[in-house]
Amino acid sequence: MLARLRSPNLVPMLVVALVIAALYYPLMLVANLPVAQRALDSGAALPCGSALECATQLRSPVLPSPQQLWKGFANLLFPLNSPNAIPLNAAVTTLETLVGLLLAAAVGFFFAIGLVASRAFERSLLPWIVASQTVPIIAIAPMLVVLLGQYGVQGWIPKAIIAAYIAFFPITIGVAKGLKSPDPLSLDLMKTYNASGWQTYLKLRFPASIPYLFTAFKVAMAAALIGAIVAEISTISFQGIGKMLAENSRASDVVATWVIMIASAALGILLVALVGWLERVVTPWKR
């Protein structure tokens, strides 16, 4: 534990967190004071006497006060197995994200190997791979769900497929860059050993791509989480972080929406940290 506290990455992260915490309260007051003043001028029944006091107690604030966020977390975290609580819905979104990442890895490796192995494959498919990421996911998600639904694919699986659609691109580009990273002398050396194409991949290109692979996986993990949440928002969902965001947004519950967004960010940090932990396990020589 002490070693983790002395981690060079943890101290800068805590400094940024402290700066954000120090700036949040004055920003919250600046954002909420005009709303509080208009509410007082309109004669609304508020349990406060001044705009400064009301700025921390608005029912629909621009930015929730720390006290409101604390109460919001207390309301949305417990009971843990409640269908309206964050833990159960976060677990569903995590499942969709992880399955989506695995699907994206399979597709990404296929395209990456093709891009490196064949110039014709790269020229014919790379523009389409890039173009696939320019289609708004919020537009394609409902159509994809309807299409998959015709074949009996329902529930969380369509969301995982949509997450994979977003996540396969960084994996494709990252792995392709890694597979191309060995220097020409090493490739020539493999030729002098009469190594086959697959032997060159297994013994040279794949090991050389590992640093690029985990960097790509970290980006893809965040993209898959975003894809899963957007898919939950833009389709009919009964569970998930996206479902909670959509419901509370429609109900104009600003505090709950902020709490869920913060929980989503925390979930993203945990999932990316999971990839970082796997990287340290697989590549112990980089420590």
Describe the structure.
By secondary structure, this protein is an all-alpha fold. Helices cover 77% and strands 0% of the residues. It has 12 helices and no strands. It has helices spanning 2-5, 10-41, 51-54, 66-77, 86-117, 119-132, 137-149, 157-179, 184-192, 197-234, 241-250, 254-282. Helix 5 (86-117) runs antiparallel to helix 10. It is elongated, with a radius of gyration of 24 Å. The model has no long low-confidence stretch (mean pLDDT 87).
From the structure above, extract its key features:
287 residues; mainly alpha; 77% helix; elongated
Can you describe this structure in just a few lines?
The protein has twelve helices and no strands. By secondary structure, it is mainly alpha-helical.
Annotate the secondary structure layout.
Blueprint: H1 2-5, H2 10-41, H3 51-54, H4 66-77, H5 86-117, H6 119-132, H7 137-149, H8 157-179, H9 184-192, H10 197-234, H11 241-250, H12 254-282
Helix pairs in contact: 4-12, 5-6, 5-8, 5-10, 5-11, 7-8, 7-10, 8-10, 10-11, 10-12, 11-12
